Amino acid sequence: MTETTPLSLAEIEATARAAHAGQTDKAGRPYAEHLRAVAEGVRARGGDEEQIAAAWLHDAVEDDKLSRRWLEEAALTRRTKDIVLAVTKRPGEPPEAYAARILATPGAPLVKEADLAHNADPARLAVLDGPTRTRLTEKYARMRALLGLVVS
Q: Has residue 19 got a pLDDT over 80?
């Protein structure tokens, strides 16, 4: 069996953008803006290329934009695949189990930290209705606490 060369970050970004094409976030913004912000957040926090790759793909399986089979067969490092799977929330999964899986996967906590930082950005939350803003603020704060992240 021959090893394949892992996809470049540019190829991963293009794949993620194509997979999420037409998708918008809760504020109606193109979803690729969130992916870019998380990837940039990982980079700014000292993340490596495998973590940045996972940041681009972090919601692809969860949002059914790319299948688990695609992920397993993709020319990605095992570590990148493991991080994506770790941050992929499973239907009905308790937050405690989700956080434990993230914490147990090398490289995943940093990706989730960048994801939470962008999700909880006051400018993003400000455009949402009050009840949604409150619900999401509490959800993100709880996950930060479960992951042992200090609120800055």
A: yes
CA distance from start to end of the chain: 47
Is residue 144 within 8 Å of residue 99, measured between CB atoms? no
Q: What is the mean pLDDT of residues 109-137?
A: 95
Which of the 8 DSSP states describes residue 138? H
Burial 93-124 (b: 16+ CB within 10 A, else e): eeeeebbebbeebebbbbbbbbbbbbbbeeeb
CB 54 within 8 A of CB 12: no
Cα–Cα dist 111/134, whole Å: 23
In order of 52, 64, 69, 104, 105, the CA distances from 86 in angstroms are 14, 15, 15, 9, 7
How many Å apart are CA 29 and CA 52, to the nearest integer? 21
Average pLDDT over residues 29-45: 97
pLDDT at 151: 64
